Amino acid sequence: MAHAERLGPAIVSGFMQKLQEPKTPYISPGRFSKVLGIQVSSLAKMTGVHRNTLRKPSSERLQGRFREMAKVITAAAELAGDLDKAIYWFMNEPISDYDHKTAAELVAEGHSEAVLRYLQALEIGASG
Question: Antitoxin Xre/MbcA/ParS-like toxin-binding domain: from which residue to which, for each copy (predicted)?
Fold first, then answer.
């Protein structure tokens, strides 16, 4: 992922607002799946919850997984300077340091902190 200009807080905030379940403080499963370009059933697998759990967006486990995914995507977007590129990277690009798994696969396995450290190392390498 190439380093670019930092995204402004408004872009990251706009991304998070796009994910919000209307009139609630929760991330919407339907909106998140649409942003990622995947079926809701695939989002359930990615978050490690039963698909019926997605009908209850207030589930703390579900919201925690969504926040982890959003944190990785926004960190990648800040590094890439583009939200769409970050989402593409999150979903599709294999990371050689982690057995060529994608960031989405790693986050699904509970390794969001490792992905964030990887992005931080890329940022340090790009700026250092």
Answer: 75-123
- Predicted TM-score of the model (pTM): 0.87
The answer to whether residues 29 and 62 touch, using CB atoms and an 8 Å cutoff, is: yes
Q: What are the distances in angstroms from CA 10 to CA 47, 76, 82, 110?
A: 26, 16, 13, 28
Q: Is residue 4 part of a domain?
A: no
Query: Which pLDDT value is given to residue 101?
Result: 97
**What does residue 33 show for φ and ψ, rounded to 5 degrees?**
-65, -35
Count of domains observed in the chain: 1
Query: Is residue 89 assigned to a domain?
Result: yes
| Kind plus residue range of the DSSP H or E element containing 114 | helix 112-127
Q: Does 1 reside within a domain?
A: no
